Amino acid sequence: MKTIAVFLIGSMVFFSIAAAPPHQRANHAAGGFTSLSTHRQGKGGAEVTWSFSSTNVTSFTVQRTNDDPTDPYSVWVQVGCVGCDGSRSYKCHDDQPIPGFVNYRVTALMNDQSTVTSQISVLHIAAH
Has residue 51 got a pLDDT over 50? Predict the structure, then answer.
């Protein structure tokens, strides 16, 4: 969903463009994420675990950002890719998260090539 607003103040024109964040632009096919959680693992690592209610999945991609996750210009880094084996729950380990508030999301690639993106889970990693 994109909206464009134009504001005219005196002789100045301001443009405002709003787009839905990437995690809200997904095609939400039948079934989807039933849980997503993150927790610290070892010295500075993180583990992302999730459950998915459909078996029509090819693979999952796990991403993280230290930016504002609602900003459409945030840089999301791929942490891992997990193949679907028919189970309902999965996990991925992130060996090198950047200290601070780390936002994680998971995108499921469906058999019909559509995607379903999870909500965001935030984890605080303290600097050592």
Answer: yes
How many angstroms separate the CA atoms of 106 and 121, rounded?
Answer: 10
120 is written with which tokens?
């965001």
CA distance 32 to 53: 5
Alpha carbon distance 61, 23 (integer Å): 13
Structure tokens at 16: 């405002």
Tokens of 72: 């459409």
Indicate the pTM of the whole model.
0.74
CATH number (2.30.42.10, 1.10.340.30, 3.10.20.90, 2.60.40.10) of 26-125 reads: 2.60.40.10
The distance between the two most distant Cα atoms of the chain, rounded to a whole number of Å, is: 61
